[in-house]
Structure formats: structure tokens, C-alpha cells
Amino acid sequence: MAPNLQLFSRTKQLEKQIDNFFDKLSESAVVYRLAVRVYLKEGVSEEFEERLVRVNKLETEADHLRRDIETQLYSNTLIPDSRGDVLGLIETVDQVMTLFEGSLWAFSIEKPDIPDAFRPGFKKLANMVVKAVDELGLGCRAFFRSPHDVPAYNHKVQLYEKEADILSTALKREIFDCDIDLSRKLHLREFVESIDSIADMAEDVADRLAIYSIKRTV
Amino acid sequence: MDPLVIIFLTSGLFLGWALGANDAANVFGTAVGTKMVKFRTAAIICSVFVILGALISGAGASHTLGKLGAITALPGAFMTALAAAVAVFSMTKSGLPVSTSQAIVGAIIGWNIFSNNPTDSATLIKILTTWVLCPVLSAIVAVILLKTLKIIGKRVKLHMIMADAYTRIGLIFAGAFGAYSLGANNIANVVGVFIPAKPFPDIVAGSFVFSSTQQLFLMGGLAIAVGVFTYSKGVMMTVGGNLGRLSPTAAFVAVMAHSIVLFLFASRGLEAWLAGNGLPTIPLVPVSSSQAVVGAIVGISILQGTTGIRWMVLGKIIAGWVATPFVAGIICFIGLFFLQNVFGLAVL
């Protein structure tokens, strides 16, 4: 029975690592939202830098987990029929975390000067993006345990992504309608787009997830 | 022991080898082909359980074959098994799916015709009905199993990785059961025709008796095991590849359905229990492992609403099933003629 016991302990360990990986995604989303809030309130403060470091660390930890999961799936020839899909999913989710990190680095380095009038817009946009990512995380977890539930989460990801698009378009319109330098307008637009791109990425991953889950339920 | 006995037995052992080489793939093909189970593990489990199945439950289906035609002369039994083996080998070579059960029945009827021995029509009808029933029953069992697993899967919500571990264990269990059933049901094809000739004396050690039939079953089982080890890897990989569209769960269901059906047609215990309870019994007949698997896969495909059943391929498979007994029968008839008239051996 020894090989079977070994199989189950290895399996439990891997299951835990996959769950941990998606924990990193949810945590990154929460910390990102807080970091943007702090920036809008007080700029690049100590608290903002702490949040940035936290997101950075989460992304690095997720990278290690991703490599570990990939190695185990292939070296132990686990889930042979869906490991390609699982790797695809984990790699693209990792890219979402990279976007969170990249966005905060941009705030830290470029320190965009956001006029007070636009701050609520930025806050709303960041919230909407984070909601999309939260639903994506739930969908990913469901993919592993109950693929039939994935469409419900994907539907919400799409909904929040659309909302984020509406918010970002409105914000960009406001930015370009107001009386500030063009260079500043362009700078702000870049930030709006970089935040919005996280929701776009979440939607792309959700689209992949939809196919993967169909394959699992057939 | 007469060395001629060993020579005559070689045709049965050749048939056993061919059975091991081909039919082990029905039991472990998908598991090995999809890398869910290592070939070495599969080969060891398959060999052990084929031999166990043959020794413990092999007598039931052998009895039916004996009723179809009791070949009492060893040269006759040799040619019957050889005709079946040649039919299996040549049809496999030409890419036609083939069943040792059908080949041996065809060969026995060939022997009956040659020896002017009337074929017991009741037994023949029982066997033919079973051949139609086997894939149909296998499809039904597969559908029930898959539906049950889907319901359980939705309720239990196992993590994909954990489900994978259970599927691996399930595939090994189903494979072991399948190998046992294969040994129990198909050993009759391999050495069944030699039983009436009683080529070995019984070995008695105290109260333990190792009968001639059991010795034949052991030899046949070993021949199947050699076939598994020496030749089945390639076939397993091909079967695994061909059935690639099946998920590991569906593969488990297909093997399980196949094993249950083979077991039903071999189990004397079940027959006695059904008869004891006044229920209709299941005939103990050697059925085709390949037909059981094909039936199960068709059942799964219908349940999943897959429109991907290639009717041309299915037609070819069925044509192979119909052709096999005729080919084996004709080869046997011609072979017996040569054995009797050219080599002067008593085949009756």
C-alpha cells in the first residue's frame, strides 16, 4: 500500500499548492485595491510602498508555486489529459498578477499627478477591476472542483470587465475635456488604460477557462 | 510425459500468446496509453490476475466449449487451436479486429464438420446470442456506470488532482478485475479444446489435487502472461492513442463495463446464485474482450451525445466479427484434412 499512500500525500500537497496559488491572486487583488486607494489619498507614501512590496512578494511567491506545480504535473505525469490546460491557466493568471505589480510600480516611479476631480473615477475603476479579478479567482477554483459552476463566475468577470471599460472611457473623456496640459492628459490616460488592462486580461483568462471547463464537463 | 503432447499444446500456447498480446490492451490500453499507469505495473497486474482468473473461474466457459465439440484426439485439438491462432494472427495482420472466442468457436465447428460430428445447435445458438448480447450489455453497463459517476462527481466535488489519484487507482482496480475476468472467460479459448484429451496426469499431494484441466489452465494463463509482457506494449499504446478522445474517467468506465460483462459470462457462482433464486441465468460462454470494450465505448459516446462515432469503422469492426468464425472454420477444416491425409495422424 506504500505507493498508494505516497500517491495520496503527493496529491494532497499539490492540491494545496494549487489552492495557495489562487490565494496569492485574491490577496494581490485586495492589496492592489488598497494600494491605489492609498496613492489617491496621499501619493507615494510609506504605506503605499509597503503595499507595493507586498504585491511584489506575492507575485514572486506565485511564480515559485507555478514552477513547482508545473514540474510536479510533468514529472509525475499527473492529470495527463488536462495538464496543458492547467498550465495555460496558471501561466495566464500569473500574468494578471504581473499586471498588478507593473501598475503599482508605474505609480511608484512615475508618480502621476491626479487632479482631485478624477480621483473618484480612478478609485471606481480600480474597484471594478479588482471585482473582475476576484470573480476570476473563484472561477479558477471552481474549475478544479466543480467545472459546471465556472460559467456563472465567468459571466460576472465579463460583466465587471464591461463596467470597467465604461468607467475607463468616461474617465478618459473627462481627462481630455478638462483644462490641463496635453502631456499630463496623456500621462493620466496611460494610467487609466493600464488599470483597465487588468480587467481585459482577467476576461481573456476567463475565456480560456470557459473552454477548459467545457472540455472537463464533456 | 510424451514430448508429442508438448508439441501439440504449442498451438494453444500460441493462441494464448496472441490473446495476451492483443486483449491485454482492452484491459490496460487506455491506462498505459494515456500514461496513467506504467506499462510494467500494468503487465505484472495483468499477468497475475489473468492466471488467477483462469485457475479459479476458468471452468465455466470451458464447459460450454466442450459441449459444442468434444475433441478427444490431441492432433485434432492441436489443429483446432492452430486454426484459431492463424485466423487471429492473419486477421490482426490485415488490420481487422478479431476475437479469439469467435475464432475458436469457428474452428470447433470446422472440426465438427470434418468429423461429421453434429454441432449442438442449442449450444451454438446460446453462443451466438451471447455474442450479440455482450456488446449491448457492455454498452448498457457503461451508460449506467458513467451516469452514476457523474452524479457522484457533482455531489462530492473532488479536486481535479485528487480525482486523478482516484482514477489511477480505479484504473488499476478495473484492470485487475478485467484481467481476472479475461482469464476466467477466455482461458477456454486457449486450452479448452485440449481438456477432453486429458494430456496430463493429475498431480495429487495429500488432499490437494492439481487436475489435468487446472494444469492446462495454468499453462494457458502463463502463455497469456508471456503475450502481455512480450508484445502488448505496442498494442496498448495504439489502443491508448485510438481511444485518446476518452477522458480517464470514461476509460475507467469502459474497462469496468468490459470486466463486469466478461465476469458475468464466466461466473459459476453468479449462475448458481441466480438459479437458486429462481432468476434467469446468464450463459457461461467465452465472449470477446474487444467486443465488450467496443460496446462500452459506443455506449459512452451515445450518452455523451458525441456525433463522432465513425460508422465506417464500426461497420468494419462488425464485418470482422462476422468473418472471424468462418475464416477459422475453413482453416481448421483444410488443416485437419492435411493432418489426417498427408501426415497420417488421428484427428478424431
Per-chain topology:
The complex is a heterodimer of chains A (218) and B (348).
Chain A lengths: L1 H41 L3 H30 L7 H28 L8 H27 L4 H28 L4 H36 L1
Chain B lengths: L2 H31 L5 H19 L1 H10 L5 H20 L6 H15 L6 H36 L3 H32 L11 E3 L2 E3 L1 H31 L5 H17 L3 H9 L12 H15 L7 H31 L7
Antiparallel strand pairs in B: 1-2
CATH topology name of chain A, in short, is Methane Monooxygenase Hydroxylase, Chain G, domain 1
Overall pLDDT of chain A, averaged?
93
Which range best describes the helical content of chain A: under 10%, 10-25%, 25-40%, 40-55%, 55-70% or over 70%?
over 70%
- The coarse overall form of chain B would be globular
State the helix count of chain B.
12
Number of strands of chain B: 2
Please report which band the strand proportion of chain B falls in: under 5%, 5-15%, 15-25%, 25-35%, 35-45% or over 45%. under 5%
Provide the residue-averaged pLDDT of chain B: 85
- CATH class term of chain A: Mainly Alpha
User: What is the spatial order of strands in the main beta sheet of chain B?
Assistant: 1-2
Which chain pair has the greatest contact? A-B, 22 and 17 residues
How large, in whole angstroms, is the Cα Rg of chain B?
A: 20 Å
Please tally the helical runs of chain A, counting DSSP H or I stretches of 4 or more residues: 6
**Sheet having the most strands of chain A:** none
Main beta sheet of chain B, described?
2 strands, antiparallel
CATH superfamily of chain A: Phosphate transport system protein phou homolog 2, domain 2
End-to-end separation of chain A in angstroms reads 33 Å
What does this protein structure show overall?
The complex is a heterodimer of chains A (218) and B (348). With 218 residues, chain A is mainly alpha-helical. Chain A has one domain: Methane Monooxygenase Hydroxylase, Chain G, domain 1, CATH 1.20.58.220. Chain A contains 6 helices and no strands. Chain A is elongated and about 65 Å long. Chain A starts with a helix and ends with a helix. The model of chain A has no long low-confidence stretch (mean pLDDT 93). Chain B has helices at residues 3-33, 39-57, 59-68, 74-93, 100-114, 121-156, 160-191, 212-242, 248-264, 268-276, 289-303, 311-341; strands at 203-205, 208-210. In chain B, helix 1 packs across helix 2. Chain B has one domain (3-341). Chain B has a two-stranded antiparallel ribbon. In chain B, a hairpin with a 2-residue loop joins strand 1 and strand 2 (208-210). Chain B is mostly helical. The mean pLDDT of chain B is 85. Chain A binds chain B through residues 4, 7-8, 11-12, 14-15, 18, 77-82, 86, 143-146, 148, 216, 218, and chain B through 34-36, 154, 157-162, 164-165, 168-169, 247-248, 304.
